[in-house]
Amino acid sequence: MVRMLEPTGIIDIGSNSVRFVVFAGSERVPSTLFNEKISPALGRGVEREGRLDPVAMERALDALSRFACLADDMRLKRLHVVATAAVRDAENGADFLKMVRRLGLKAKVLSGEEEAEIGALGVLSAIPQAEGVVADLGGGSLELTRVSNGAVAGRLSLPLGVFRIGALSTKKLAGRIGKAIEGLELGEREALYLVGGSFRALARLDQSDLQHPLPIVHHHRIAKERLPLLEHLVATTSEEELKRITMLSANRIEILLPAMSVLDALVAVFEPREIVVSAFGLREGLIYRDLDAAKRASDPLLEAALEIGETLGRFGDHGALIDQWIAPLFPNDDSAHQRIRLAACLMSDVAWNAHPDFRAERAVDMALHGNFVAIDAHGRALLGHALSHAFGSDYRLPPGILSLLEPDEADRAAAWGRAIRLAQRLSGGAEKGLMRTSLQVTAEELVLCVNGPEEFVGETAARRLSQLAKALGLKERILLD
Length: 481
Fold this sequence. Notes:
This protein is of the alpha/beta class. It has helices at 42-49, 54-74, 85-89, 93-102, 112-126, 170-180, 197-210, 227-236, 239-246, 250-253, 256-270, 282-289, 293-296, 300-312, 319-326, 335-346, 359-369, 377-390, 399-402, 407-427, 431-435, 458-471, and strands at 4-13, 18-26, 31-38, 78-83, 108-109, 132-137, 142-148, 151-158, 191-195, 275-277, 437-441, 445-450, 475-480. It contains 22 helices and 13 strands. The protein has a five-stranded mixed beta sheet with strand order 3-2-1-4-5. Helix 6 crosses helix 11 (256-270).
């Protein structure tokens, strides 16, 4: 049973944007019910004059007044209001906070170290196995946090946000970062995890140039050898084209070059083995921080798949039982493939109420484009391919997405899908039917063991057993107890 999060709001007063997000759903990996932001660029005034600009303050306060009203209308169970570098560093930051509090919002200014830690917790919530350095780039500051074994292992905050670095060269940036991290324990050639809108925009630009078949930013890996090309693209692509590709406003487009300089400096200093983009950061970290240890340790992909299965399944979720039932067919699946196979089983009844001709298409769309974390494009393709066969139509993955899989992996996922399809037909979508049966594999046969009369299997399930056996290169047999 998925433990649910009651509607929880977060108002994030950042150096560039002011955003209101409402989360609910699975406590481990909640869904976004509402998301709105404006970009008053509070940090620009701090960089120029050390103070928040009056016009930017007015825009921010107008938005915050709206957000306070919406939060009240939504009857949120909890509301976090946090401010980061711009308010933290501005001479008139305290005055601005008084105005915010008059709106009924209990805003808290995060220290640089708190901001670093919470942002890193957001990365751990979405990439539990993260090992390396989290770089969270905002308008006013750059937070660097080492994560290891599922925990924060060191943190610091530097005044090197995109509004503050000015014309500093990559070499000078690298020198300042290198000196600052002397007290941060680092492993050798660890991964670099990128957080923040500017870095996500660079990832979108990279995916667009690569014509990536599944351009989802979270868990996208930016190859180090592509950094010079990205810098060239940022410098030479028109503003309108950059807007189209990155989906950023004009005032954010102009910070892409500084963001590129920071990324180049980070790579020069850390020499990471890989660069991974995270869609989760500070806001998600606030939710994750409040979870107990057991819930933190749960798998966010499987939690999301379980929530979907419980919500959309016909007779309640029994995906874990389906996975146990088909497991004897796949003894060579490693832990990574077992995990995706289980996710497919948990989602194996999500499209039953769609038109029969489009059930597979709906399930595949959910696998490829669902708001999942702890899964990359390759994993999504594997999951989608399994579900396309589980729902049995002629619909298959687009060739570009199928190209993300090796041929033997595609065959494996197709076999998962056929096995799931047999399980759902045999059981009628209910748990009890599976408990009357089991599967066994011999050198030459796929054996369906039935505790009951042969009629229980039925013609359709017998046909699916035959199709599955053929796909596995075996003969089928029904064995009655």
